[in-house]
């Protein structure tokens, strides 16, 4: 007699596997891009890598040095939200990957995977680190930007998420989880960021 599915199995089936739709969507996206355009998701993955966080932080810091008054306070808070939110998000993401231990697409689907490009930083897949990072970046910068810039940033974030599927590194659920985690962590980082922001040194900057 076959054992009844556990609550964990039920949750995974409907909240992660989506009744099989997670893998089906992955395969559709992964197989849709012609080989001649593989440079596009590779470029987006490179641009959206969390290894670029020091450059993003340095750019925000230099921006702060060129401002004063209310603009400086807003930019400083953005930098604080980015730093605190990123630390919280990447730590939470690493813990989640180990806790859920969901396999990468090529391990879960075997020969069904159409394309796998590159070598990931970890064996597990939820959440996507790239998606988490671009969500942190977008959420931190959001208050400073006008609507055209916000739209461009959202398009970039979605493009990075798509690139992780197109390259065979993540399922759609991993990407969505990364987006949610990044935004939530930046929102949660708000109170601490307000305390950290005024203490960020800006030696040689504008009036503070």
What is the oligomeric state here?
A: single chain
Number of helices: 10
Largest sheet: none
| Shape label | globular
| Arithmetic mean of pLDDT | 88
Could you spell the SSE succession in H and E letters?
HHHHHHHHHH
Measured between the Cα atoms of the first and last residue, the distance is 72 Å
Fill in the CATH topology: Vanadium-containing Chloroperoxidase, domain 1
How many structural domains are formed by the residues?
A: 1
CATH architecture: Up-down Bundle
Beta fraction of the residues?
A: under 5%
CATH class: Mainly Alpha
Structural class: mainly alpha
List the uncertain runs.
Answer: none
What is the C-alpha radius of gyration, as a whole number of Å?
A: 19 Å
Number of strands: 0
Determine the fraction of residues in helical runs and give it as a percent range.
Answer: 55-70%
């Amino acid at each position: 007699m076959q054992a009844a599915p556990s609550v964990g199995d039920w949750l995974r089936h409907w909240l992660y596997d989506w009744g099989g739709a997670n893998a089906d969507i992955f395969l559709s996206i992964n197989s849709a891009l012609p080989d001649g355009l593989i440079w596009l998701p590779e470029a987006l993955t490179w641009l959206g890598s969390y290894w670029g966080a020091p450059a993003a932080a340095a750019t925000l810091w230099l921006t702060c040095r060129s401002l004063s008054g209310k603009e400086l306070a807003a930019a400083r808070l953005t930098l604080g939200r980015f730093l605190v939110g990123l630390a919280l998000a990447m730590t939470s993401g690493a813990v989640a990957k180990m806790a859920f231990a969901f396999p990468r697409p090529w391990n879960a689907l075997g020969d069904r995977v159409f394309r796998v490009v590159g070598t990931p930083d970890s064996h597990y897949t939820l959440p996507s680190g790239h998606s988490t990072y671009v969500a942190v970046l977008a959420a931190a910068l959001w208050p400073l930007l006008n609507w055209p810039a916000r739209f461009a940033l959202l398009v970039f974030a979605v493009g990075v998420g798509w690139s992780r599927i197109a390259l065979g590194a993540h399922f759609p659920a991993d990407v969505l989880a990364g987006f949610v985690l990044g935004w939530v962590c930046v929102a949660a980082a708000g109170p601490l960021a307000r305390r950290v922001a005024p203490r960020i040194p800006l030696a040689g900057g504008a009036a503070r």
